[in-house]
Amino acid sequence: QVLLVESGGGLVQAGDSLRLSCAASGRTFSSSAVGWFRQAPGKGREFVASINWTGGITYYTDSVKGRFTISRDNAKNMVYLQMNSLKPEDTAVYYCAAIVTVWDYDYSNPAAYDYWGQGTQVTVSS
User: Fold this and answer.
1) Could you tell me the mean pLDDT of each successive run of 10 residues in the chain, 126 residues long?
2) Are the C-beta atoms of residues 11 and 70 closer than 8 Å to each other?
3) Burial 36-69 (b: 16+ CB within 10 A, else e)
């Protein structure tokens, strides 16, 4: 089992940066891929970024490419989402999720992930 706790959200202005952190516990974390998803009010859960178990492969949704960077530190059981040049449309609750796999996975599909954190709010004002 993997337990996930997000932190780092907050209220910022457009153009600012935030770094979200996802702290994981559980022996299988180092062999888990991790994704970041977000959900705005009245909308479905949207894929943002994902990283494979080694950290060597990353995926991003088009709207955040060049602005967001996902990374992980397996020694610390941490995954990060560095968010730069934030826009009001980035406002949402951000969730990290884990899937225990060292193989290819359906990285943008929320249903593919086994474990979820409780979420952290990111609000970007214009």
Assistant:
1) 94 98 91 97 96 96 98 96 98 97 93 96 97
2) no
3) bbbeeeeeebebbbbbbbeeeeebbbeebeeebb
